[in-house]
Each structure stands twice: as structure tokens, then as C-alpha cells.
Amino acid sequence: MLSIIEKIILSLLVIITLSAFFLPVYRRYQIIRSAKAVERTNNLGRRFWRVLSWVFLQRCTLKNERLGTGIIHAGLFYAALTFDTMTVNHTLDGFLSGFSLFGHGLAEHVVSGLIDFMALVVLLAAVYLALRRFLLRPQALRTSALDSAIIYFFLLTTTLSYLFFEACRYLYQPEQLRFSFLGPFLSRFLFGAEAPTNQPPSLLHLSWWLHIIIVYAFIAYVPHSKYFHMFAGPFNLLFHRETSPGEIEPINLENTEVYGIEKALDLTWKDCLDAFACIECGRCQDVCPAYLSGKPLSPKMIIYNLERHLLRSYFPLHEKNREKLPAIVPEVIKPDELWTCTSCGACMHVCPVEIEHLAKIFGLRQAQVLMESQFPTELNSFFRHLETNANPWGIGFSRRGEWAEKEKVPRLTENPKAEWLFFVGCAGSFDELGQAISRALVRLLRQAGVNFAILGEEEKCCGDAARRLGNEYLFQMLARQNLELFLQYGVKKILVFCPHGYHTLKYEYPRLLSIFSDMSAGDKEFLSQIQVVSHLELLSLLVKQGKISFKAAARETVVTFHDSCYYARHHHLRAEPRYLLRSLPGVRLKELPRGKEHSFCCGAGGGLMWTEEKLGQRINHIRAQEIAASQAEAVITACPFCLTMMRDGLKDLGKEELAAFELTQFLAASLLE
Fold first, then answer.
1. pTM for this one?
2. In the listed set 370, 398, 429, which residue is the last one of a domain according to the structure?
3. Are 348 and 429 members of one domain?
4. Which residues contact 127 (CB under 8 A, 6 or more apart)?
């Protein structure tokens, strides 16, 4: 098809295009290589097959939020694969006249019809996405307008230029487009029914070159655009976090010079890959309680600004020159963004390429607290209270077990053979609402005949809030004291009713063991085998076994359920509370619009229970409004902090007639004595 000179020109174009594509890709690869190590290569076989299903079946976009847009993107993905294949075929056809990857039989005819269908998909999708971005202009899509316009331009011109080539090809090679429906139509529309005798053969030649130049220009542009997620996204999915999204990597405080993330060199290679894989779809922003309540934080902008910072910092990163790098806070991310995250994990849950926003925020907080001593002023007393009395309120540690005296709950010193250690936690020990939950759980356990005991005044705060607020030193101190108590008493099973305590004891304490160099291997092995169970799991089991029974109800009660972020989203404990509620005679559950894995945060997570919410609307007010609109008689939750936030929110809105209970209280009130 092409002359020798044209083949030389095409060869040069291929080299230039590949260079234009791979040089910026290599630049990003070097940035990733310069970052800190993190282990993400375990279970590679399982990871690989998961990526295949998530990418090629488009499970990453076909989620139960933004389903319509997900279908559009899935169509674009399959169309891109089709056109990428045709680009290879188109290029080889230039070097080898008449070449076809699909042969010259039925397969070629089927592909001619498929490519026309995919062309329609691209045209419709590009028009829809352009109208959505530039006319409807949702908040989530108000970045990179020029980049988006260029991408839509290339999508349209690439498709239209191919259809023009197909129309010209139909003039001279109609037998190769037997199943094509757009090519013949456009050919007749553009050239008329008698076209083959009236059009010069050079027209086919011209249309071939037009399409190849536009396609190559698009390929060269891709690494500079958000469209690069088509390549970086699958790698990000391959190296996804297999543990809970809220888990924090332990810091070896004795052997580390930099605590957390101060500058770009402190990021892990996965943090950098996250930045380059971002689609800029804004799903994370759409569900972020901080953003939706008018606060400065947008998880999308955290990643967006981080990517631009990494690209600007290429040379000092490549040279590992720390002195030439600015501090990320406040140069890239502002303090008000950092300290308004509730760690609810909604951003990570909805992200199509599984970007890990929380790891960056936690790391930045660690650097601010441990290296700069920069944090909200109200946390001074919070940290001091934890350090001196092992609880956030600063109440004397000797009073931790007072709530249990009237209930005659035994300590482990009195009942060393107890099957379960009931780890009460700070809220259950000191807060009035929390103490009511503790007493209710004791009643349920006793009816079921469970052999349990508490630590009493020996118990320390689990350290969850201290860790999420960046004070890793304080967290490790509290955790070490609790772990030594578990060793001392030979604890094998732990029961908790706080989602944050559950997360910390079950998932974060075991990971600390690797950095405690002075602890024996035997002790570490024992501690790693401790079974930590939530009250939702144990109570569900006891009800199923018939060990807990409930009395008949005088009338039907309509309740709604507020899922805690750490139970429902981080650890998938969604069925258990609903099973327990449906076990109660006369109780009808009415789900909230944002429930289960899509639950809207109460505003207390991430340690923000202990800070002042000064910016924007109070998050618990938004949730309280949603609860009030449900027309339920009561709201039930399974977290002491959620309970406090719900009660305060309903009170502030003048909806005190709507009762709020922790699930354990609600169950205990219906016990068949």
C-alpha cells in the first residue's frame, strides 16, 4: 500500500510516537523507583487473576454507585481494546499491503461489524461525558478541563477518521467490509452510489494516513493525561492492599530517622503509583463526609495535588536530594485538609483503581505530630490524658473498673480461667453512655452462660485514636502495656463492643509484634494467636444457638440502623447487626439511603471525636437529618462513639423524640428473663 519513502516515514513516526509515549512513562517509573519500599508482591498469582477479572470484566467501574457512568466507561474500555487492536493492524497494513490480523475470511468480516459497533459506543460515550463535564459540571469533575477536552477531541477524531477510512475502503475493497454497516452508509452518504468510478485511488491512501497520524498523536499524549490510568490502573489493582483500608504500617521508632511522611521521598512506591493511577473521576470526593460538610478536604485533590508535586519534583527525587524538596504540609496539602479526615474509608471503597488515600493522610499526620509538633491545640490535653491515665478524659486510671462493681463483674485476677476477656475500652469504662452499653452486654453474656472477665483498672486505652491522630509513640506505649497484660493472664479470646477497639486489637496489635525486638519468639507466637471477636459476631452466634431469647413485643417498632464505618466498611460486618435486629419480635428495620457499605460517617472517626469541628457543617448533623427523614421511631448503632454523635446530632436538630440506642442496649431491653 505504501511506497518505500512512505514506509520510512511511517517507521520514523512509529519510533517518535513510541519515544513520546515511553519517555514520560519511564520518568514516572523512576519516580516510583525512588520511593520507599513496601511489600505488595505476596500472592502474586491470586493478585494477577483478580486483576484480570476486575479489569476485563470491568468490575472496577461496574459498582453499585454511579452505575450508569460505570456502564459508559466499561463500553469505552472495550472499545479502546478493539481500536488498539485495529491500530496494530492498521500499522502493519502500511508495511505489508493487504495484511490482516484476522485473516481474510469470516473473522475479518465479523471484526468489520464489531469495529462499527464500537465506533458508535465511543461516539455516544464521548458526547455524553463531554456534556456531563462541560454543561452539567458536577463538583467532582471540575479539574483538568483542558485535558478532558483534548481527550474527548482525540476520542472523536480517532473514531471519525477511522470511519472515514472505512468509507473510502468500501469504494475499493467492499468485500473486506461484509458485516460493516457504518462504512457502506458513510461511503454512499459522502460519495454517492456510483462512487467507485468517480473517486481517485489516492483518497484511500489519504484517509489511511489521516487516521494513523491522529492515532499516533493520541498515543503520544496519553502519558501526559489522566487517560494514563488505562495503563497505571491495572498495576495499581495488582498491588492493592489486601488488609483493611484503615490499617497503619507500624514504625520502628528506634531505627527510623523520619517518622511518617514529611517530604516526597518518604512516600512509598505504592503511594506514587496511586498518584499516577488516579482517574480524576471524583467518586471519592462525592462520598467524603468532610467534603460534603463543607470542609477543605477532598480526597481527590489530595491525590491530584500529590501527582503534580511528584512530577515537579522529578530531579530531586531522582537524585534523592532531600534538601531540595519542600515539606508536603503545608506546601502541597494544607493542615485543614489533613485534620478533617474521619478515616471512614468511603473514598477507598468507591475508588475504581483502589487508591489508598488514608495511608497518605495517616503518614502526614505522623510527621506533623512526631517531628513538627504541629496539631490542633485541643489534642495537647488529649495526648497528656492518655499518657498519664490511659484514657482520653484524664479520669484516674484506678476508676476504670468502677462501673462493674455494682454488676459484680469479675476481674481476670478473680476468674483466671475465664474463656473470654471482655476488653471494655475507654468509652465502656468512663463514659455514661458507654457504661450503659457495658452493663447491657454483661446481661446478655450472663443469660447465654458465657464465662468472661475484665481487666478492670489494669486495662489501658487500645490507642486507636492516638494512632489515627499521628501519635505513633503513644499508641505503641499503650499497645505494649496491653499486650503484656494479655501475656501475663494467658488471654486466648477477647470480646470487644467498640469497632475501633476491634480493628486495633485484631488487625493492628499483631503487626506491632515484628518491631518489638525485646519480646521472645514464643511470646510473639502466643499473642499472634489471640482470637479477637466483635460483640456483633458473638451475640449473633449465641442467638443462633438459642442461648439468648427475647420476649414478645406489645406492638411493632420501626427502627433504622446506622452502620459504623469500621464495622461495616472496613471489616464487612453488615449482616450480623441486621440478623440480631430481625431476631427481635415486633421490630421492623427500615434501611437508610446510605447504609451498609455506603454508610455515611458520624464524624467521630480518625480521632476527630477529640477535636473541635470548627469548619463547615457538623457531620453528625447531616447524618441526623437523614435519620430523622427515615420516619423511624429509633436509630440503632453498634458503636459507642456513633451513639454519642447520633444523640448529639438529633438533640441539636430538635429531634430528641427520636430515640438512639446502641444495639446491645436494644437487645438487652428485650431479653426474656
1. 0.92
2. 370
3. no
4. none
